[in-house]
Design goal:
With 272 residues, the chain is α+β, with helices and mostly antiparallel strands. Helices cover 12% and strands 28% of the residues.
Length: 272
């Protein structure tokens, strides 16, 4: 017997396209996504009792990205200001990183009495600071410190990812579009050194809570007719014609390593 629901299902399936974009970057997204942060580097929680550097304890710092160089501005010995070249640009000198330490970035000013004269314990150091402008136009100061790996605990980052693929994830859902096949929103483990083919990383963090961001995207997609109205696609059995389940492959999320970075490298052979 033909029912109104069976007619709706048949017409819906004939109306949507089964093909999708090969280029995930062509899928329209709300403007808010431009302001979402993708870390692009490793994150660590700091635990240290070392003098002034203890002000970083409990905070999360970023590893200096691989495409950046640890350099320190040169001080003019006469004026005590930063030295500039004939073009008005700052002059820099390379900073030697001690073995067993790495360079990290933080918004916290730890209050060193005289960063260029103060001699911290072995493995610690202060390099320089920079003014950083965010995507939304606001600005902040970012400080460059040297910290021993023994006081750094790696954060296991997560990401909200948009993909043409049904990826292994913590959680996620596929959404049937009118013209572009099925597009998936996944919450996945994030590795800044990995390549994500067919996938766009929209935002990173260190939790599984991306519900606010997903709501923004779905509202935009529905209002822009990228996807159907999801509420109207719900069937009597509770399933939804416009939504597809994904591969949940990660059950437990542990935010922070229990071993400091130096021990993790020793015991697991992992190179940071």
């Amino acid at each position: 017997m033909t029912t109104l629901e069976s007619v709706f299902v048949r017409e819906f399936r004939s109306a949507v396209s089964n093909t999708g974009y090969k280029d995930i970057y062509k899928i329209p997204l709300p403007k808010e996504v431009e302001d979402w942060e993708v870390s692009g580097t490793d994150l660590f929680k700091v635990e240290t009792e070392e003098s002034y550097f203890s002000n970083l304890s409990g905070s999360i710092v970023k590893r200096l990205p691989k495409d950046k160089i640890a350099r320190q501005r040169v001080i003019n010995p006469v004026t005590r200001n930063f030295k500039r070249d004939e073009n008005g640009e700052y002059e820099y000198t390379d900073y030697s990183i001690p073995s067993g330490s790495i360079v990290v970035l933080s918004e916290i000013q730890i209050g060193l009495p005289n960063p260029r004269k103060y001699t911290p314990s072995q493995g610690y150091g202060y390099i320089d600071f920079n003014f950083i402008t965010k995507k939304d136009g606001s600005a902040y100061v970012e400080y460059m410190y040297v910290l021993p790996k023994s006081c750094l605990y790696k954060i296991h980052q997560t990401a909200l990812a948009m993909s043409v693929k049904n990826m292994k994830n913590y959680e996620g859902m596929g959404y049937v579009t009118w013209k572009n096949g099925t597009i998936f929103l996944h919450i996945i483990p994030y590795n800044p050194n990995s390549q994500y083919t067919g996938t766009k990383i929209l935002k990173t963090g260190y939790s599984l809570n991306y519900q606010k961001e997903i709501k923004v995207i779905l509202n935009y997609w529905q209002n822009s007719r990228v996807i159907p109205n999801l509420a109207l696609c719900t069937l009597e059995d509770g399933s939804n014609l416009a939504m597809k389940n994904t591969i949940v492959g990660y059950e437990e999320y542990i935010p922070i390593d229990t071993l400091p970075l130096n021990d993790k490298e020793t015991y697991t052979g992992e190179e940071e």
